[in-house]
Protein backbone atom coordinates (compact mmCIF):
# COMPACT_ATOMS: atom_id res chain seq x y z
CA UNK A 1 0.00 0.00 0.00
CA UNK A 2 2.15 2.88 1.15
CA UNK A 3 3.97 4.94 3.76
CA UNK A 4 1.59 5.99 6.54
CA UNK A 5 2.76 8.35 9.30
CA UNK A 6 1.26 8.93 12.74
CA UNK A 7 1.82 11.95 14.92
CA UNK A 8 0.10 13.90 17.70
CA UNK A 9 -0.41 17.49 18.80
CA UNK A 10 -0.33 17.19 22.57
CA UNK A 11 -0.25 14.77 25.47
CA UNK A 12 0.10 11.08 24.86
CA UNK A 13 -3.00 10.03 22.93
CA UNK A 14 -1.66 6.65 21.82
CA UNK A 15 0.53 7.19 18.74
CA UNK A 16 3.01 4.46 19.64
CA UNK A 17 0.31 2.00 20.73
CA UNK A 18 -1.70 2.64 17.58
CA UNK A 19 1.30 2.40 15.26
CA UNK A 20 2.40 -0.92 16.77
CA UNK A 21 -1.14 -2.28 17.00
CA UNK A 22 -1.70 -1.49 13.34
CA UNK A 23 1.66 -2.99 12.36
CA UNK A 24 0.91 -6.27 14.18
CA UNK A 25 -2.54 -6.41 12.53
CA UNK A 26 -1.38 -5.31 9.07
CA UNK A 27 -2.32 -7.77 6.30
CA UNK A 28 1.04 -7.45 4.50
CA UNK A 29 4.68 -7.28 5.55
CA UNK A 30 5.26 -3.93 7.20
CA UNK A 31 8.18 -1.90 8.53
CA UNK A 32 7.59 0.17 11.67
CA UNK A 33 9.92 3.15 11.94
CA UNK A 34 10.34 4.71 15.37
CA UNK A 35 10.94 8.28 14.32
CA UNK A 36 9.74 9.95 17.53
CA UNK A 37 12.38 12.57 18.42
CA UNK A 38 11.58 12.14 22.12
CA UNK A 39 13.89 9.11 22.01
CA UNK A 40 13.82 5.98 24.13
CA UNK A 41 12.34 3.21 22.02
CA UNK A 42 8.66 2.73 22.85
CA UNK A 43 8.96 -0.74 21.41
CA UNK A 44 12.04 -1.96 23.26
CA UNK A 45 11.07 -0.42 26.60
CA UNK A 46 7.30 -0.89 26.17
CA UNK A 47 6.18 -3.88 24.13
CA UNK A 48 9.38 -5.86 24.74
CA UNK A 49 9.71 -4.62 28.35
CA UNK A 50 13.47 -4.33 28.01
CA UNK A 51 13.90 -8.02 27.12
CA UNK A 52 15.31 -7.13 23.70
CA UNK A 53 18.62 -5.47 23.36
CA UNK A 54 19.16 -2.37 21.29
CA UNK A 55 21.28 -3.49 18.36
CA UNK A 56 21.23 -0.38 16.24
CA UNK A 57 18.62 1.89 14.76
CA UNK A 58 18.16 5.25 13.12
CA UNK A 59 21.22 6.84 14.66
CA UNK A 60 23.54 4.15 13.28
CA UNK A 61 21.79 4.50 9.94
CA UNK A 62 22.45 8.25 9.98
CA UNK A 63 26.00 8.24 11.27
CA UNK A 64 27.69 5.03 10.20
CA UNK A 65 25.99 3.59 7.14
CA UNK A 66 27.58 4.34 3.82
CA UNK A 67 24.38 3.38 1.99
CA UNK A 68 20.89 3.94 3.39
CA UNK A 69 19.61 1.02 1.33
CA UNK A 70 22.04 -1.50 2.86
CA UNK A 71 21.99 0.19 6.25
CA UNK A 72 18.20 0.02 6.47
CA UNK A 73 18.26 -3.73 5.99
CA UNK A 74 20.96 -4.03 8.67
CA UNK A 75 19.13 -2.04 11.33
CA UNK A 76 15.68 -3.54 10.66
CA UNK A 77 14.73 -6.15 13.27
CA UNK A 78 11.97 -8.71 12.90
CA UNK A 79 9.27 -9.18 15.53
CA UNK A 80 9.17 -12.98 15.77
CA UNK A 81 6.01 -14.70 14.70
CA UNK A 82 4.92 -11.73 12.63
CA UNK A 83 5.59 -10.04 9.34
CA UNK A 84 6.55 -6.86 11.18
CA UNK A 85 10.06 -5.46 11.14
CA UNK A 86 11.05 -2.33 13.00
CA UNK A 87 13.78 0.24 13.05
CA UNK A 88 14.48 1.40 16.59
CA UNK A 89 14.49 5.11 17.24
CA UNK A 90 17.11 7.15 19.03
CA UNK A 91 17.84 6.29 22.63
CA UNK A 92 17.84 9.89 23.77
CA UNK A 93 16.22 13.13 22.61
CA UNK A 94 19.74 14.58 22.36
CA UNK A 95 20.43 12.31 19.38
CA UNK A 96 17.38 13.38 17.38
CA UNK A 97 18.86 16.51 15.74
CA UNK A 98 21.63 14.30 14.28
CA UNK A 99 18.96 12.64 12.13
CA UNK A 100 18.11 15.84 10.30
CA UNK A 101 19.81 14.91 7.05
CA UNK A 102 18.61 11.33 7.22
CA UNK A 103 14.86 11.92 6.83
CA UNK A 104 14.66 12.84 3.16
CA UNK A 105 16.87 10.02 1.80
CA UNK A 106 15.24 7.64 4.27
CA UNK A 107 11.82 8.61 2.94
CA UNK A 108 12.93 7.77 -0.60
CA UNK A 109 14.18 4.38 0.55
CA UNK A 110 10.94 3.72 2.47
CA UNK A 111 8.80 4.64 -0.53
CA UNK A 112 10.79 2.15 -2.62
CA UNK A 113 9.95 -0.67 -0.21
CA UNK A 114 6.45 -0.76 -1.63
CA UNK A 115 7.77 -2.42 -4.75
CA UNK A 116 9.06 -5.26 -2.54
CA UNK A 117 5.58 -5.71 -1.07
CA UNK A 118 6.36 -4.00 2.22
CA UNK A 119 4.36 -1.11 3.65
CA UNK A 120 5.72 1.40 6.15
CA UNK A 121 4.25 2.78 9.36
CA UNK A 122 6.03 5.76 10.89
CA UNK A 123 5.71 6.72 14.57
CA UNK A 124 6.65 10.39 14.29
CA UNK A 125 5.95 11.32 17.92
CA UNK A 126 4.62 14.75 18.74
CA UNK A 127 4.50 17.58 16.22
CA UNK A 128 6.78 20.55 16.66
CA UNK A 129 9.60 18.90 18.61
CA UNK A 130 13.24 19.55 17.82
CA UNK A 131 14.32 16.73 15.50
CA UNK A 132 10.80 16.09 14.22
CA UNK A 133 10.91 13.90 11.06
CA UNK A 134 9.24 16.55 8.93
CA UNK A 135 10.14 15.05 5.53
CA UNK A 136 8.45 11.79 6.55
CA UNK A 137 5.31 13.63 7.67
CA UNK A 138 5.25 15.66 4.48
CA UNK A 139 5.90 12.88 2.00
CA UNK A 140 3.92 10.03 3.52
CA UNK A 141 0.95 8.90 1.44
CA UNK A 142 -1.17 9.61 4.48
CA UNK A 143 -0.28 11.48 7.68
CA UNK A 144 -2.68 11.01 10.56
CA UNK A 145 -2.84 13.14 13.68
CA UNK A 146 -3.81 10.85 16.55
CA UNK A 147 -6.01 12.48 19.17
CA UNK A 148 -8.39 11.81 22.03
CA UNK A 149 -11.72 13.57 21.84
CA UNK A 150 -11.55 15.72 24.97
CA UNK A 151 -11.74 19.49 24.53
CA UNK A 152 -8.09 20.13 25.50
CA UNK A 153 -6.97 17.46 23.03
CA UNK A 154 -9.12 18.85 20.22
CA UNK A 155 -8.06 22.42 20.88
CA UNK A 156 -4.40 21.36 20.65
CA UNK A 157 -4.98 19.64 17.29
CA UNK A 158 -6.93 22.59 16.01
CA UNK A 159 -4.03 24.97 15.50
CA UNK A 160 -2.15 22.28 13.59
CA UNK A 161 -5.21 21.41 11.51
CA UNK A 162 -5.60 25.13 10.68
CA UNK A 163 -1.97 25.38 9.61
CA UNK A 164 -2.35 22.30 7.42
CA UNK A 165 -5.42 23.78 5.76
CA UNK A 166 -3.62 27.07 5.18
CA UNK A 167 -0.90 25.08 3.42
CA UNK A 168 1.82 25.90 5.97
CA UNK A 169 2.98 22.30 5.70
CA UNK A 170 3.22 20.62 2.39
CA UNK A 171 1.73 17.29 3.45
CA UNK A 172 0.52 14.93 0.73
CA UNK A 173 -2.65 13.95 2.52
CA UNK A 174 -3.65 14.35 6.12
CA UNK A 175 -6.42 13.35 8.46
CA UNK A 176 -7.23 12.48 12.01
CA UNK A 177 -7.29 9.16 13.84
CA UNK A 178 -9.46 9.31 16.94
CA UNK A 179 -8.58 7.24 20.00
CA UNK A 180 -11.45 6.85 22.44
CA UNK A 181 -14.31 7.60 20.08
CA UNK A 182 -17.29 8.93 22.03
CA UNK A 183 -15.22 9.75 25.13
CA UNK A 184 -16.78 12.26 25.19
CA UNK A 185 -17.08 13.43 21.58
CA UNK A 186 -17.92 11.45 18.46
CA UNK A 187 -15.79 11.24 15.34
CA UNK A 188 -18.31 13.41 13.56
CA UNK A 189 -18.06 16.16 16.16
CA UNK A 190 -14.26 15.97 16.06
CA UNK A 191 -14.28 16.20 12.30
CA UNK A 192 -16.56 19.25 12.39
CA UNK A 193 -14.53 20.98 15.10
CA UNK A 194 -11.30 20.45 13.17
CA UNK A 195 -12.70 20.86 9.69
CA UNK A 196 -10.64 17.81 8.84
CA UNK A 197 -11.58 14.22 7.95
CA UNK A 198 -11.53 11.57 10.67
CA UNK A 199 -10.07 8.69 8.69
CA UNK A 200 -10.29 6.08 11.44
CA UNK A 201 -11.41 5.63 15.03
CA UNK A 202 -10.24 3.32 17.79
CA UNK A 203 -12.17 2.53 20.95
CA UNK A 204 -10.87 3.24 24.42
CA UNK A 205 -9.65 -0.24 25.40
CA UNK A 206 -6.98 0.20 28.07
CA UNK A 207 -6.41 -3.52 28.70
CA UNK A 208 -5.68 -4.35 25.07
CA UNK A 209 -3.71 -1.13 24.58
CA UNK A 210 -1.43 -2.10 27.47
CA UNK A 211 -0.33 -5.19 25.52
CA UNK A 212 1.14 -2.95 22.84
CA UNK A 213 2.29 -0.07 25.02
CA UNK A 214 3.94 -1.99 27.85
CA UNK A 215 3.89 -5.68 27.01
CA UNK A 216 1.06 -6.50 29.45
CA UNK A 217 -0.46 -9.99 29.51
CA UNK A 218 -3.11 -10.59 26.88
CA UNK A 219 -6.55 -9.90 28.30
CA UNK A 220 -9.35 -12.41 27.65
CA UNK A 221 -10.60 -12.38 24.08
CA UNK A 222 -7.82 -9.99 23.05
CA UNK A 223 -8.00 -11.06 19.43
CA UNK A 224 -11.70 -10.36 19.10
CA UNK A 225 -11.81 -7.48 21.60
CA UNK A 226 -12.69 -3.84 20.90
CA UNK A 227 -9.17 -2.67 20.07
CA UNK A 228 -8.44 -5.62 17.77
CA UNK A 229 -11.65 -4.98 15.86
CA UNK A 230 -10.97 -1.26 15.78
CA UNK A 231 -7.49 -1.87 14.35
CA UNK A 232 -8.92 -4.07 11.58
CA UNK A 233 -11.44 -1.40 10.65
CA UNK A 234 -8.77 1.32 10.82
CA UNK A 235 -6.57 -0.60 8.39
CA UNK A 236 -9.44 -0.92 5.92
CA UNK A 237 -10.18 2.81 6.23
CA UNK A 238 -6.52 3.79 5.80
CA UNK A 239 -6.23 1.52 2.81
CA UNK A 240 -9.25 2.96 1.07
CA UNK A 241 -8.16 6.54 1.82
CA UNK A 242 -4.74 5.96 0.28
CA UNK A 243 -6.18 4.07 -2.71
CA UNK A 244 -8.78 6.76 -3.38
CA UNK A 245 -6.18 9.49 -3.49
CA UNK A 246 -3.98 7.45 -5.79
CA UNK A 247 -6.78 6.88 -8.24
CA UNK A 248 -7.69 10.59 -8.06
CA UNK A 249 -4.08 11.45 -8.88
CA UNK A 250 -4.10 9.04 -11.82
CA UNK A 251 -7.40 10.44 -13.01
CA UNK A 252 -6.02 13.99 -12.77
CA UNK A 253 -2.93 13.01 -14.77
CA UNK A 254 -5.00 11.66 -17.67
CA UNK A 255 -5.07 13.88 -20.73
N1 LIG B 1 -7.03 2.69 22.17
C1 LIG B 1 -6.58 2.87 23.44
N2 LIG B 1 -7.40 2.66 24.49
C2 LIG B 1 -6.98 2.84 25.75
N3 LIG B 1 -5.74 3.23 26.10
C3 LIG B 1 -4.88 3.47 25.09
C4 LIG B 1 -5.24 3.31 23.71
N4 LIG B 1 -4.15 3.60 22.95
C5 LIG B 1 -3.16 3.93 23.82
N5 LIG B 1 -3.58 3.84 25.10
C6 LIG B 1 -2.79 4.08 26.31
O1 LIG B 1 -2.39 5.44 26.34
C7 LIG B 1 -1.10 5.57 26.94
C8 LIG B 1 -0.19 6.34 26.01
O2 LIG B 1 0.04 5.56 24.84
P1 LIG B 1 1.26 5.81 23.86
O3 LIG B 1 1.01 4.94 22.69
O4 LIG B 1 2.56 5.65 24.57
O5 LIG B 1 1.02 7.33 23.49
P2 LIG B 1 1.94 8.33 22.63
O6 LIG B 1 2.84 7.52 21.76
O7 LIG B 1 0.98 9.19 21.90
O8 LIG B 1 2.74 9.10 23.66
C9 LIG B 1 -0.63 4.14 27.24
O9 LIG B 1 -0.87 3.85 28.58
C10 LIG B 1 -1.50 3.28 26.33
O10 LIG B 1 -1.69 1.98 26.85
MG1 LIG C 1 4.89 7.50 21.62
Describe the structure.
- The chain is of the alpha/beta class.
- Helices cover 42% and strands 16% of the residues.
- It is built from ten helices and eight strands.
- An eight-stranded mixed sheet has the order 3-4-2-5-1-6-7-8, sandwiched between helices.
- Helix 8 links the parallel strand 7 and strand 8.
- The mean pLDDT is 95.
- The structure holds adenosine-5'-diphosphate and magnesium ion (MG).
- Adenosine-5'-diphosphate (ADP) binds at residues 8, 12-17, 42, 179, 202, 204-206, 209-210, 213, 227.
- Magnesium ion binds at residues 15-16, 36, 42, 125.
List the helices and strands and how they pair.
Elements: E1 3-8, H1 15-25, E2 30-34, H2 42-47, H3 58-63, H4 68-75, E3 77-78, E4 84-87, H5 103-113, E5 119-126, H6 134-139, E6 142-147, H7 151-165, E7 174-179, H8 187-194, E8 198-202, H9 206-214, H10 226-253
Parallel strand pairs: 1-5, 1-6, 2-4, 2-5, 6-7, 7-8
Antiparallel strand pairs: 3-4
Bound molecules: adenosine-5'-diphosphate and magnesium ion.
CATH architecture: 3-Layer(aba) Sandwich
What global shape is seen? globular
What's the CATH H-level superfamily name? P-loop containing nucleotide triphosphate hydrolases
Number of domains: 1
Strand order of the largest sheet: 3-4-2-5-1-6-7-8
List the uncertain runs. none
Helix content: 40-55%
The proportion of strand residues reads 15-25%
Elements, N to C (H/E): EHEHHHEEHEHEHEHEHH
Task: Please report the distance between the alpha carbons of the first and last residues.
Answer: 25 Å
Q: What's the total number of strands?
A: 8
Structural class: alpha/beta
Amino acid sequence: MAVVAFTSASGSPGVTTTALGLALTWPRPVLLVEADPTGGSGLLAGYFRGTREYVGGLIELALTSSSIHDGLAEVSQRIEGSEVSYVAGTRSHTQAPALRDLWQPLYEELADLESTGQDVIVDAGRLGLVGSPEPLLANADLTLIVTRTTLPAISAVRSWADSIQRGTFDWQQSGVLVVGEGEPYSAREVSQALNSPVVATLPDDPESAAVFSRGAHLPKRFETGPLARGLQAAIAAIHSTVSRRRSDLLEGARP
